[in-house]
Design brief:
141 residues, mainly alpha, 3 domains, two-stranded parallel sheet, 5 helices
Amino acid sequence: MTADTAVVSAQNAARHAVQEAMGRSRADGDGAAARAARVRLAEMPGYRRPTGSATWQRIRATLRSALAQACAEQLIGVNVAKLVSLPSGKRPRAKVWTPVRVAEWERTGQRPSPVMVCGLRSRRLCFSGIPRFTNTVPCSV
């Protein structure tokens, strides 16, 4: 986790805590505390999505491409995006939900990987209670 990611995560957690406190104040009928929480929320930075190294690599690639085109058209002399070095930006691999991973997630509350997908068997379990869509009414224009 980079320093910026840690800061963004901490700011998001603090904002979430103030929002929960404001909700509890409203539920308890304490208007003064709810107003104070609203003022604190207005002073805090908004929610942000932390960016990882893979996102930074994609941003750099986009910028490099745009600046390369500008160099080709002789609008600028040097593509400065080529000079920037960033940490490796490997995207996380998707992992399949298995019974072992589901049990671990239920026990700890933490996902085994940032990217999780359902396998065929678990999809069948998920959608087994949903009736199939059948178009029994003819469409009329």
